[in-house]
Write a structure and sequence with these properties.
By secondary structure, the chain is an alpha+beta fold. It has eight helices and twelve strands. Helix 2 runs antiparallel to helix 4 and helix 6 crosses helix 8.
Length: 314
Amino acid sequence: MNPQSERDSPLWPPQALDPAGPFAAPLAEISWVMLTMGAAVLVIVLAALVLALSGSARSWMAHNKFVFAAGFSFPVIVLSAALIYGLTTTARLTDPPGANELRIRVIGEMWWWRVLYMDGDRVAFETANEIRIPTGAPVTFELESADVIHSFWVPQLGAKLDMIPGRRNLLRLQADRPQTYRGYCTEFCGAAHALMAFEVVAVTPEAFAQWRTAQAAPVLPRTGDRGAALFDAAGCAACHAVRGTSALGRAGPDLTHFASRRTLGAGILPNDAPTLRRWIANADDLKPSVRMPSYESLSDADREALALYLEGLR
């Protein structure tokens, strides 16, 4: 099993050092500056070691006054400079969200992501494991957890932030170029923690407006659809919602426009026909510890009908 987005990710530079927006750029800058400062400190310490071992400098470098003065002043100067620089550089990352910013509420669950697009205090629509945003504009993320502590991080777009049960944390991100960005849970949250990923798909504002309109629309009822009937009969509707139908489950991801998503299993698998059929039959084979039950007891024909129904949810 190879996560789809991991295959697409370049090996260099590391994602956190390849910023794609104004909230990530200062963090990459700090990383490079700290790396440079660390290398400079190492060179200075090695140079001092060479001098201390040489005959000409050994006498005065071994003096107590020099040892105490250098041992105190050098760390204070270096660490104070690093502290002031870090606080100054990151200060601009904590500006409060604007009144008209797009707000997306992301709830971490074991082991997937519930994604709610907000319209004021109302949920406009819900999706899962894939977040679409418009380029060139800051987006406010409202981060929550439904169970244990998770942590939300898109390395190319900004800082990581914990998702703590009973608390809502705010994080602002912005993508300056259309691209698909990899996101991770970076707080150990249980057996499938390493298989809890997501994607942020940044598109042009015009494309985002079209997508948002399509996502807000309910599914049109399909009379006589065998797959739709099986979705209810097999118990799928007890865990999953499909807006426009009688499926109102809240335990699992909303599947209203499932077929429009790029991945399966919280960002770890491609959302294609063969993978979907294997997922329906036995999701635990593809994602160990997943909470979705297996449907190996269904006939091949029933599983095919169910897959075709899900592929029609665009």
